[in-house]
Write a structure and sequence with these properties.
The complex is a heterodimer of chains A (301) and B (119). Chain A is built from 7 helices and 11 strands. Chain A is an alpha+beta fold and 301 residues long. The radius of gyration of chain A is 24 Å and the shape is elongated. In chain B, helix 2 runs parallel beside helix 3 (61-71). The longest helix of chain B has 13 residues, at 11-23. The chains are: A alpha+beta (301), B alpha/beta (119).
Chain lengths: 301, 119
């Protein structure tokens, strides 16, 4: 995966989390625009109107990098009003935002970045923590350009709040891109690599992929069923609690190989003590166009 | 109805949580904007329930939670954070929090958590 692809992937997952959150605060007033990689020498904030309110949240531990949410004064004011359940701002003509309005915008950025940190964590497989938000108001774009550390990469996410063009800028250091590219490549390989099938068939017939792939160890697991619950309910489960799954006892269970649905079968006991699965139906060879059903827990839910 | 201390670094969130609690029939006895203030206000006010944000300047909510529990092992604390990551939830519950509300939240969820902490 190229650096540009990884940056766009990162931007898209953040954009989704951000838009979803803003939509909750300001229903029907958020429109997501494009995600673009900012060329090395360009100002990622170019084209925005000033004065603007910028809230930055940086990653701590796990990953170095940061995100800046920039809203023109008018957009910030309208977002804050929407968050407080008001149709119109209290003081629409004030030259600056009130402390409460600034705090609302900062909280929106904070919750946005917490959501994005969650999805980045699951891609990278490491916990990503975020710092408390810092908010400032810029009178000119040139001021904003020097206000944040320069990183080799930046991604620009455009959207509008109440019709006002806003921007979320991700400041991305090299180390992050390397880890992200690697993690996404691994994820891709788990999803699309047909090698596990070949390896599994190698015992009885010649593998079409050649002998070099026949010995690759693959992870095989069986899934009885699934459910979803709020995290707070989960941690509050007492021992002895019964968690119902989504599958009937007489339905077949699923067998996954390296994350791909491979077969369905029946759960059984062998030697009187060990669980086993009797395979009933082996799925057709995974379609490269992407029709395979994948257990990418937990993103697939 | 309970006497509640509301802790969050964002004034907006303190207002939002306080409004929800007051509408739900509770009394907000104090507010704090960071972990250090939270511990001080707890010692001073001895609220029946405390809502505690995690990502805060100076001292984060988890550190504050541990100090509050040390001060008063029977403290009823509800975490209220945008960081819904599993480890944060588990760490909080292990450290003695009664419940964990993930932001953005619904008003009923906050009231339910406070009600549960009181039970």
């Amino acid at each position: 995966m190229s650096t540009e692809d990884a940056l766009i992937k990162l931007g898209e997952s953040t954009a989704e989390a951000a838009a979803g959150l803003l939509e909750m605060f300001a229903p029907g007033k958020v429109e997501l625009g494009g995600v673009a990689v900012v060329p090395g020498d360009a100002n990622p904030l170019e084209g925005l109107s000033v004065p603007a309110v910028a809230t930055s949240v940086s990653y701590i531990d796990g990953v170095t990098g940061g995100n800046v949410l920039v809203l023109p004064l008018e957009g910030a004011r309208l977002l804050a009003a929407a968050m407080m359940g008001m149709e119109q701002p209290e003081e629409p003509d004030a030259p600056a935002l009130s402390e409460l309005e600034l705090s609302a915008v900062a909280e929106a950025a904070n919750q946005m970045m917490a959501g994005a940190a969650g999805s980045t964590s699951s891609v990278l497989g490491t916990e990503v923590e975020i710092s408390p938000p810092e908010t400032r108001t810029f009178a000119a774009l040139s001021e904003a350009a020097g206000a944040y550390p320069h990183t080799p990469h930046a991604v620009r996410i455009s959207f509008t709040v109440c019709g006002e063009p806003c921007r979320l800028v991700q400041l991305v250091p090299n180390a992050f891109v390397v880890r992200m590219t690697r993690a996404l490549d691994e994820l891709d390989a788990e999803v699309h690599d047909p090698a596990p099938r070949d390896a599994a068939e190698a015992g009885s017939q010649a593998s079409p992929s050649g002998p070099s792939l026949a010995g690759i160890p693959v992870r095989v697991w069986a899934e009885l069923g699934r459910t979803q619950m709020p995290s707070a309910e989960l941690v509050g489960l007492p021992s002895g609690a019964v968690v119902e799954l989504d599958r009937q006892a007489d339905e077949p269970i699923e067998v996954y190989v390296n994350g791909t649905l491979f077969a369905t079968g029946r759960l059984m006991v062998v030697d009187g003590t060990d669980w086993a699965v009797r395979i009933e139906t082996v799925r057709q060879h995974p379609n490269p166009e992407g029709e395979t059903e994948v257990a990418r827990w937990p993103e697939s839910w | 109805m309970a006497r509640v201390l509301v802790v969050d670094d964002a004034a907006f969130m303190r207002k939002l949580v306080s409004d929800v609690l007051i509408k739900g029939g509770h009394e907000v006895v104090g507010e704090a904007g960071n972990g250090t203030e939270a511990v001080d206000r707890y010692a001073e006010l001895r609220p029946e329930v405390t809502t505690l944000d995690i990502t805060m300047p100076e001292k984060d909510g988890l550190a504050a939670l541990r100090e509050i529990i040390q001060l008063d092992p029977a403290a009823r604390v509800v975490m209220c954070s945008a960081l819904g990551q599993e480890t944060k939830v588990l760490e909080s519950i292990k450290a003695g929090a009664k419940d964990f509300v993930v932001k953005p939240f619904q008003a009923e969820r906050v009231l339910e958590a406070v009600g549960k902490a009181l039970a």
